[in-house]
Amino acid sequence: xxxxxxxxxxxxxxxxxxxxxxxxxxxxxxxxxxxxxxxxxxxxxxxxxxxxxxxxxxxxxxxxxxxxxxxxxxxxxxxxxxxxxxxxxxxxxxxxxxxxxxxxxxxxxxxxxxxxxxxxx
Length: 121
Prior knowledge:
Layout: H1 2-25, H2 28-31, H3 43-66, H4 71-93, H5 101-120
Helix pairs in contact: 1-3, 1-5, 3-4, 4-5
């Protein structure tokens, strides 16, 4: 279980470090080609999502690694689950059902990470 958690958590953390970093550091014009939905939400909200993704990535890895407040890993995984439900909802509301594949994969990985965090941590 421990190895499984670390594999899933590491993959999720890498994905969200990349995604969150882009949302925090880049402007709307640079984000638009990869994330067409940035036109549908205010840019400060995009920045908040990016910050939450960065914090969640740290939350998946650092607490179990240090042994300090390991329950934060579960909170991060649940947060990513909710984030992906919101992402899927946004895509579906914009008629972009064909674009939810990555969201579904990330949702499944976050659910698995949450389950593993409850079993292992």
